[in-house]
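haha ok so turns out i had the wrong file open the whole time. this is the CORRECT one, sorry everyone. sequence first:
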Amino acid sequence: MIRLDHLASTPVHPEVMAAMRPWLEGGRHGNPSHLHQAGLEAAEVLRDARAAVAALVGAEPEEVIFTSSGTEAANMALCGLAWKDNALPLAASRAEHPAVLETARFLQRQGHPLHLIPVDGAGRIEPGRVAAVAGRGLLAVHAGNHDSGALQDVEALARAAHAEDARVFCDASTSGGWIPLDMRRQEIDLLSLSPHRFFGPQGIGVLVVRRGLELEPLIHGGRQEGGRRAGTESVALAAGAAAACKLARQHGADWARQAAARRDRLWGQLRAAIPGIHLHGPEPGPERDPRHLAVGIEGVEGEALMLLLDLRGVAVTAASGCLSGEEKYSSVLRSMGVPEPLVRGTILMSTSPGQPAAEMDQAASIIAQAVAKLRDL
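then structure:
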């Protein structure tokens, strides 16, 4: 199977597995809230993990909160601030991930004003649009987009929001680990990460909250995570997240270059082999996630193509957010003004630095043959 769906999740790196193994095989199992030796060892792992996350994103270790996922982190950021201020206005782009948009709409139903900011044809947000809607509220913006591949100018957006006395939450769950992030330089107040997107384990997410910013907890109980999230932490997953962050800090730029080279090779082959194929989002380059390739193909349905490719040994995804009704097609692409036939004819692909370059040629040939077959039906 040729995997072209690395944006959704990545294999666990051997160094990540090695960091987790002692906490999974029974040799080490302390509760980090306890003061005996086993508990202190576990607490030390958590301290190391916070330091590793902080080093990756330009933050302080005490600002790091471990969650169960990037989705929980997004919920914690939005709800945690909104529940501290019942009048807090919210602003987000129309291209945000459902973890952000659906949470914002949930808060809107609770009475919080919500302003949705349009994006341009490449899926990017104009900083000038932020000032009109972000005043004294919370701006939620992604670092990299899951459907279009667009990388936002988070620093410019944050500067525009702060000029209006707003706070900024950056959802970096899609592109974190693959692009440079620096919360201090980029003026980000809250930031989420998903380590499983950069060779870490599934089941753990991260929310980084600027010192002095208070959140209402989503989960109540004990005083774990500095009283911000109750429940015993998973030491094994934290160890894995730490290892992934260290690897990303050391190798992320090389990973990105290698993945981009494979993505560009794949796109070149597809563009040459398939008439009527259209790139969604920015052209490959500094404004696009280095792994990401989203295309709309005339005369085919994306889901049908995805299923046929799966049978032929190539894993891609269609632009689907759920399994039924009109919502299964990408609202992000629609917000960019993509024509409906191309929205429905979209497949998403993403590469990995470890893939043989020859696989890109093989995948492109299989995709072109599958498109021809579907067009002949």
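The two ends are 25 Å apart (CA to CA).
again sry for the mixup
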